[in-house]
Amino acid sequence: MFINHERHIAHLDLDAFFVSVECLKNSSLKGKPLIVGGSSDRGVVAACSYEARSFGIHSAMPVRLAKRLCPHAIILQGDMESYSNYSRLVTDIIRDSVPLFEKSSVDEFYVDLTGMDKYFGCCRFTTELRQKLMKESGLPVSYALASNKLISKVATNEVKPNGQIEIPFGSEKTYLAPLSVAKVPGIGKETAFLLLRMGVETVKVLSEIPVEMMQNLLGKNGIELWRRANGIDDTPVIPYHEQKSISTESTFQQDTIDVEFLRSQLVRMTEKIAFQLREQNKLTGCVTVKLRYSNFDTVTKQLSIPYSAADHTLLKAAKDLFEKLYERRMLVRLLGIRFTHLVPGNYQINLFEDTQEMIRLYQSIDHIKHRFGEGLLMRAKGLESMPSEIRHHPTFQRASIRDIRKG
Fold this sequence. Notes:
The protein is of the alpha+beta class and 407 residues long. The protein folds into three domains: 1-170, Alpha-Beta Plaits, CATH 3.30.70; 173-239, DNA polymerase, domain 1 (Orthogonal Bundle), CATH 1.10.150; 246-403, DNA polymerase, Y-family, little finger domain (Dna Ligase, domain 1, 2-Layer Sandwich), CATH 3.30.1490.100. It has 17 helices and 13 strands. It has helices spanning 17-25, 50-53, 63-69, 80-97, 122-137, 149-159, 172-176, 189-197, 203-207, 211-218, 220-229, 259-279, 311-325, 356-372, 380-383, 388-391, 394-399, and strands at 9-14, 34-37, 45-48, 74-76, 101-105, 108-112, 141-146, 164-166, 246-256, 282-293, 298-308, 332-340, 343-344. Strands 5-6-1-7-8 form a five-stranded mixed beta sheet, sandwiched between helices. β7 (141-146), α6 (149-159) and β8 (164-166) form a beta-alpha-beta unit. α4 runs antiparallel to α5, α10 packs across α11 (220-229) and α12 (259-279) packs antiparallel against α13. The radius of gyration is 24 Å and the shape is globular. 38% of the residues are buried.
């Protein structure tokens, strides 16, 4: 028998985040169909206002299709630096206000308020936190307070935009029952279509299917979906620590002053951990480059950047840092790069600055690396730092990213 422990978990969501930031910067945009995305017909929609959504527009849609659906929509290129700054501002406010929170994306947060009901009242506290966030950031915020992350996430989606709700402990199944199965996290289009063909339209019907049947139908995922349909979720709120990082460094066999070698090594290393970043569905907000000279003096430089997991963005930051850092023109013993200020998220966040071709390119590159190994596909510049006998091996020559796109 599964038991939901009485916890108090709030889910806070910045409504239509990119759009809200743009409206904050230019109040004349409020109430209009607004699209944040690529400005060319080959671009894609990164975010859209609720007014634009009423025309059937949604994220990841080609801009040319969005224009046909709503010819009078206002299209903005987007400003990732502003979005990142506002995300950090909200993070700082929450950090200063609560003892335990999880940043699940650039615009979503879980707050664990378990135990606070004895002293203050969780609903009252969350309401005041929401008001504080809106006052200090100027952005609209929705929240739901429930006994677990699953219910609070679903409920927040139901009360957006600019709403709040509390789902009392013990009423999880009752709340979920009338909702469409498509609103259960983890149920994608294919699974939803399969369930609908079976006549399973609501969460109530899904929750009544024997767990053994769900397991036979969908394997382990079937068990998890059964748990969610019954409002069961013991997932903890994972404390947010910006010091978590992904890094790599290389100590050379011989100290070197070959700048081109160092640059190519930096490209190879940056690509390597950028792929790891995307594999973990994370974005970085800070890049650090590290140099150790032959006399063992070690220097570092870091740069805060708009949240990203894109090679071309991270490579530019790494190269700029290296040029500023390498000023002694001494022999170098070690080179390293580190990504910090990590937040959950994926490459989709950069949609507004890329074409569909660019997005497909990254998806193809990651697919090849995932299948055959990350070392078999890299920018031509990165190959320059490989040993000659490896660099000229037919496998590496065929795998060079030069065949896909000049690096």
